[in-house]
Amino acid sequence: MDRILTGLPYIIAGIFQLYEMVIFIYCILSFMPRLYQNPFGQLIVRLVQPFLVLIHKALPFLNRQVLDFSPLIALIILQLVQKVIFMVI
């Protein structure tokens, strides 16, 4: 049991880093919209879009036509949640 608890923070950190990377890839894909149409782009959109929709609903003033700051807010939220989880563990 002790080995599981010592490895748990690394697993949690890895999951958060992976999702942060997916959000970053989503931002890169936004510069090349045709990439959304291939299977990899569709996977990235399906992974990120639900989280960004929640941010758009909670903060509608961020939903701009030119610049969308919701991925940045998503990364900040992920960092805060990760810190809170590590404080609890």
How would you describe this protein?
Helix 1 (2-29) crosses helix 2 and helix 1 (2-29) runs antiparallel to helix 3 (70-88). The chain is flat, with a radius of gyration of 15 Å. By secondary structure, it is mostly helical. It is built from three helices and no strands. The chain has helices at residues 2-29, 39-58, 70-88.
Please give a handful of descriptors for the protein shown.
89 residues, mainly alpha, 3 helices, flat
Helix/strand structural class: mainly alpha
**Fraction of residues in helix:** over 70%
What's the total number of strands?
Answer: 0
Report the sheet-strand fraction: under 5%
Low-confidence stretches: none
Query: Largest sheet, described in full?
Result: none
Total number of helical segments?
3
**Rg estimate, integer Å:** 15 Å
- Secondary-structure element sequence? HHH
What characteristic shape results from the CA principal axes? flat
Average pLDDT, all residues: 88
Euclidean distance between termini CA atoms: 14 Å
Outline of the structure:
The protein is mainly alpha-helical and 89 residues long.
Describe the SSE topology.
Blueprint: H1 2-29, H2 39-58, H3 70-88
Helix pairs in contact: 1-2, 1-3, 2-3
